[in-house]
């Protein structure tokens, strides 16, 4: 059975002047128009296509790639507005409708908004909703510490960055654990730090403690290289406040990072701080 709003691997049934027909199962044939046929195809050949509906409601195939599939969140730009709602550019010739009933605020042309892409039960058409909260956190997360996830950055807050994890859950990347700042709307690879009691997920941008310490070590080494004398007046005895002010990390992580650099013979730890090893 073909999956609407998803990528499908389908076999060619026949060639016609205006494209090829693909086997959609149960006797259904789906047109792949000529402009989307990447190379000559013969009956029996298999091709990966995205399936959606045209303006007449017919299933149609394309080899173009939308910015989001059904079941995914994305930041999309409003290209037009009419009596039916707002239309979004999602990378296909046919734009994606956000009905007025699915808008949190009235959308205007040029606005970029986070939306969820889904199939409307009544019309069986692919549409989008800007009321994203309805579609997040509806199952129980089962992640373990260090699990790798994809996070869509929703917005920046005083604590850090609010995200959507694997198109399913809300997550948080905290400011004091960041070594670079992602952009709102960016998809980043992250790692589970903990699953909270409310089902929300704390994330880090490096794999578990080892990845985080490795990233911090790189930051420290870069800072040392940029110091005129290759020296930083911070060591095991420095205050947690001084370390956090300089590197936005805990004293525990700082000690692990300089310990790693010391074992790799990249720094020496002196009474007053840390010095880079001259190469």
Structure description:
The chain has 279 residues and is mostly beta strands. The chain has helices spanning 208-226, 240-247, 251-263, and strands spanning 7-16, 19-23, 29-33, 46-53, 59-62, 73-82, 85-89, 96-99, 112-119, 126-129, 148-156, 160-165, 169-174, 187-195, 201-204, 231-232, 267-269, 274-276. It has a five-stranded antiparallel sheet, with no helix packed on it. Helix 1 (208-226) crosses helix 3 (251-263).
Strand content: 35-45%
Number of helices: 3
Radius of gyration: 25 Å
Helix content: 10-25%
Give the distance, in angstroms, between the N- and C-terminal Cα atoms: 63 Å
The SSE string, one letter per element, is EEEEEEEEEEEEEEEHEHHEE
| Low-confidence segments | none
Number of strands: 18
Which helices and strands appear, and what pairs or packs with what?
Elements: E1 7-16, E2 19-23, E3 29-33, E4 46-53, E5 59-62, E6 73-82, E7 85-89, E8 96-99, E9 112-119, E10 126-129, E11 148-156, E12 160-165, E13 169-174, E14 187-195, E15 201-204, H1 208-226, E16 231-232, H2 240-247, H3 251-263, E17 267-269, E18 274-276
Parallel strand pairs: 13-15
Antiparallel strand pairs: 1-2, 1-4, 2-3, 4-5, 6-7, 6-9, 7-8, 9-10, 11-12, 11-14, 12-13, 14-15, 16-18, 17-18
In short:
The chain is mostly beta strands and 279 residues long. It has three helices and 18 strands.
């Amino acid at each position: 059975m073909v999956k609407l709003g998803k990528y499908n691997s389908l076999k060619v049934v026949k060639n016609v002047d205006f494209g090829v027909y693909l086997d959609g199962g149960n006797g259904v044939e789906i047109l792949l128009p000529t402009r989307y046929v990447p190379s000559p195809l013969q009956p029996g050949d298999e091709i990966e296509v995205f399936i959606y509906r045209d303006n007449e409601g017919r299933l149609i195939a394309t080899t173009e790639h939308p910015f989001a599939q059904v079941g995914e969140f994305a930041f999309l730009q409003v290209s037009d507005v009419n009596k039916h709602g707002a239309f979004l550019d999602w990378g296909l010739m046919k734009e994606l409708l956000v009905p007025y009933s699915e808008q949190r605020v009235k959308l205007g042309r040029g606005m970029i908004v986070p939306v969820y892409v889904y199939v409307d039960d009544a019309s069986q058409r692919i549409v989008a909703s800007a009321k994203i909260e309805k579609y997040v956190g509806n199952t129980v997360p089962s992640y373990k510490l260090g699990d790798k996830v994809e996070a869509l950055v929703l917005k920046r807050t005083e604590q850090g960055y609010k995200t959507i994890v694997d198109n399913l859950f809300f997550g948080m990347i905290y400011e004091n654990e960041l070594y670079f700042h992602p952009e709102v709307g960016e998809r980043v690879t992250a790692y589970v730090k903990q699953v909270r009691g409310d089902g929300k997920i704390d994330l880090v941008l490096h794999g578990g403690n080892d990845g985080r310490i490795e990233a911090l070590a790189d930051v420290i080494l870069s800072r040392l290289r940029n110091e005129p004398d290759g020296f930083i007046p911070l060591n095991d005895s420095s205050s947690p406040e001084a370390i956090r002010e300089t590197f936005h990390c805990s004293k525990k992580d700082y000690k692990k990072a300089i310990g790693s650099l010391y074992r790799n013979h990249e720094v020496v730890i002196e009474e007053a701080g840390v010095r880079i090893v001259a190469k």
